[in-house]
Write a structure and sequence with these properties.
mainly alpha; Four Helix Bundle (Hemerythrin (Met), subunit A); 5 helices; 0% strand; elongated
Length: 136
């Protein structure tokens, strides 16, 4: 992004406009998180594949072993699903940067705030909408 494009991103009243350096820092953090998530998912999916193949028919396993394996498999599925959601958030944030809509609340359309985005680059909601969502 050029300086003009970085400065065109919305900010909360009273915040300085985005600088190219600040935006580059956010993009670098998102890319780092993306790489970590992809590596994590590759490893977790391989482990999960092993758990699924090992589930077998229960021959030679007592009920406690089968229960522990089932619990572990369910836990791994939850972890993989959560990481996939995180990766989708990262990719959505990068897409919003590319389209110049980064920093706009997906719920109310108001600015999210540069400080919030620098602390949590995947944020898609302003603080007011996020608090409302968490109360539900």
């Amino acid at each position: 992004m050029s300086q003009i494009e970085a400065q065109a991103l919305v900010v909360v009243d009273g915040e300085d406009p985005w600088t190219e350096e600040e935006l580059a820092e956010v993009i670098a953090e998102l890319r780092e998180q993306q790489g970590h998530s992809l590596a994590f998912l590759t490893a977790q999916e391989a482990e999960l594949s092993g758990l699924m193949k090992d589930s077998g028919d229960g021959a030679g396993h007592d009920q406690a072993d089968m229960g522990a394996t089932s619990f572990e498999r369910d836990h791994e599925l939850t972890v993989v699903s959560s990481e996939r959601d995180k990766l989708a958030q990262i990719e959505r944030a990068l897409g919003r940067i590319d389209h110049g809509t980064y920093g706009v609340c997906e719920s109310c359309g108001q600015p999210i705030g540069k400080m919030r985005l620098m602390a949590f680059p995947r944020a898609t909601l302003c603080m007011t909408c996020k608090q409302r969502e968490e109360r539900r």
